[in-house]
Write a structure and sequence with these properties.
253 residues; 6-stranded mixed sheet; binds magnesium ion; alpha/beta; binds adenosine-5'-diphosphate; 9 helices; 4-stranded antiparallel sheet; single chain
């Protein structure tokens, strides 16, 4: 089976700093890949490039075999129009550290807005689906609350429901619990565990090593824009091969 997501030589520079240095990565259907690594190693840049929030400077990224940022027409590749880019981006869901909810929309409207506006669902359909998604993240009783009336953990769960609402092929999480008070981390990790059990395809950047060990099918360790080591959690945490991973783990576990 071909991977849902493939990166081939993906390279990103900011000025003369190389944030991603020829990264190769495949994510299979239903796979949970957890990305770890020190601050500044390129983890956010990696997921931001996949979501086309950053342009790339080299290599290719493929979603279900389709080159991101381009369309094929009579055997020739053309850069996507803004509309084409938007449609491609909707096949990728992203959850940020800082929730990024619309402050003036209720939880229900935060989740139903995209399906209603861009997927042509009726208001009724979009609301029914949004209600079911909010229920799935444990917020069935908070539909009409506004973000400021919700805790950080609840806001992040709304953001997860919103990311699911466009039925993406893959979900990207960039440190989804790093902005939360410690007592709220577990309710968000619990939702991620449920999504993993349901077979969603996910890339999760996190510093929660216990979560990585428990939920990841594969762990990717990045440093200085490169994937230094990758493997199942038992190998990464139990018998790290590189000195750099060894020293990272001794600082973070
Ligand atoms: P991580 O998420 O692993 O902490 P990032 O992907 O945010 O790392 O950053 C990787 C490197 O790229 C860092 O050196 C960071 O300073 C740099 N970088 C990230 N975004 C920008 C930007 N918009 N402009 C300039 N440099 C950036
Ligand atoms: Mg980051």
């Amino acid at each position: 089976m071909s991977p849902v997501l493939s990166l081939r030589g993906t390279t990103k520079r900011f000025g003369d700093h190389t944030a991603l240095d020829a990264v190769d990565l495949d994510v299979a259907e239903g796979e949970v890949v957890v990305v770890i690594g020190p601050s500044g190693s390129g983890k956010s840049t990696l997921v931001r490039c996949v979501h086309q929030l950053e342009s790339v400077d080299g290599g290719g990224m493929y979603l279900d075999g389709e080159l991101l940022g381009y369309s094929e027409h009579r055997g020739a590749l053309r850069p996507l129009t803004p509309r084409g880019t938007a449609a491609q981006r909707r096949r990728v869901g992203m959850v940020f550290q800082q929730f990024n909810l619309f402050p003036h929309f209720s939880a229900l409207r935060n989740v139903s807005e995209a399906p209603r506006r861009v997927h042509g669902r009726t208001a009724g359909e979009a609301e029914r689906e949004a209600t079911a998604l909010l229920d799935r993240v444990g917020l069935g009783d908070r539909l009409h609350h506004y973000p400021r009336q919700l805790s950080g953990g609840q806001q992040q769960r709304v953001a997860i429901a919103r990311a699911l609402a466009t039925r993406p092929r893959i979900l990207l999480f960039d440190e989804p619990t790093s902005a939360l008070d410690p007592e709220l981390v577990e309710e968000v990790l619990g939702v991620l565990r449920g999504l993993a059990r349901d077979g969603l395809t996910m890339v999760v950047v996190t510093h929660e090593m216990a979560f990585a060990r428990e939920v990841a099918d594969r762990v990717v360790f990045m440093e200085a824009g490169r994937i230094v080591e990758t493997g199942p959690p038992a190998q990464i945490f139990g018998s790290p091969r590189s000195e750099r991973l060894h020293s990272f783990l001794s600082r973070h576990t």
